[in-house]
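Me: I keep going back and forth on a fold encoding question. No explanation is needed for now; the record alone will do.

Assistant:
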Amino acid sequence: MARAQANPGISWRDLTPQPLILLSGSEQYLASRAFELLRAQAASREDIAHTRLNAQSYEPGELLLATSASLFSTANLVEIHDLASMNEYFLKDALAYLKSPAPENVLIMHHSGGTRGKKLLDAIKAAGAVIVNCQPVKKDAEKIEFVTAEIKAAKRRITNDAVKALVAAVGNSLAELGSSCSQLIQDTTGTIDQDVVDKYYGGRVEVTAFKVADAAIAGNAQVALRTLRHALSTGTDPIPIVATLAMKVRQLAKVLGVNEPAAVLASQLGMAPWQVQQAQQQARGWKRSDLAACVETIAQTDRMVKGGGRSPGYALERAILFIAGKAPRH
């Protein structure tokens, strides 16, 4: 398993039909895109048969049948799902097949992780399988890269601000992020900018929270309060807004007075480079003592919105006014 981590493999986007393919990682969405891509590529051939097998519920002989030539096909595309939960029947038949895999076939297998099946994984790699990276996408920089690639693959353009806004709005789930990219591609024309993203996803609590925080930090109390009141009136939970305020103020404190390049600071602070650049811009003119006071105010507000006060909305408004009042006047 250590080898798989050291060499995560190619992107699913670069996948082409090969005799042996191993999808390695627990991100089901990436694995599903890889399966989908190969199905589409195989659909252009009339001489290839398609079979889907489940390694957990596998019956003896199914793999031999799926990989054998027939009267109607000279090659086979065989999908193997749930490799991490394989039974002993599948292990035995798969090890036998790997001793002499048919070069005309495409055998694509997904292993989501864990130690089960290590013997088979070692055999798959020793047989020269193409390894496809299906590890979870957690960092914002990776999500930004994913969105950019999705839009580019559709021969469309998207602005940097729009990419960041989309990741902020729907970036918790890669499947939802991919679906959102598809929606924007299908429902819009021309360059996708931040206004377009806001039109479709601006009502999301994540987007609202960032708008409130950014306005407060910039000293624009009116915009922050107007956005907050609209969000609360439509049922938005105040807790994520407080959490975003806290995160943004902490980011400012981290970069304040530090002159190192964003790329260097990003790895040290666990932030994406664009987050560092934005925080550095927003931190200009702030005093460390004022940021400390804002952190204390946000901590008090957090307690109040979680049951320590009668009116979470009022507590949030007070915090926003306090932060906006401390913001430097440029």
Notes: Confidence is low (pLDDT under 50) at residues 1-6.
